[in-house]
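ok so for the tutorial part 2 we go from a plain amino acid sequence to predicted structure tokens. step 1 is just haveing the sequence, like this:
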Amino acid sequence: MPIAHVVVTLLAAAMSGYSAAAILFRAGWVLEALTDYRVPRSWWLRLAAAKAAGAVGLVAGLFVPVIGVLAGAGLVLYFAGAVITVALARRYSHIPFPLVYAAPVVAALALGFAA
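step 2 — the prediction. this is what the tokens look like for a chain of 115 residues:
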């Protein structure tokens, strides 16, 4: 397994896990953004759980590749939904933020397929 794939996958997992933890630990800047984007509070825990599960799945994918592919695909869909949510809230200057989290996931998937 190439070192680049492992490093990028662990980076993607760490970023997704951090993003989940920011919701779970109620980081003010995240909750303010979710409120601005009109994401219902009842969804917040589920969104954090989805990101955390994706992070764990990426790491597990280093040992069982199909799990990593499924987790990566789920995270890409998650962050695509985040981009749509931000755009619908007309916070166009915020669109790069979910893309920053999606980029290492996409890179990890690409490196995994190339390996």
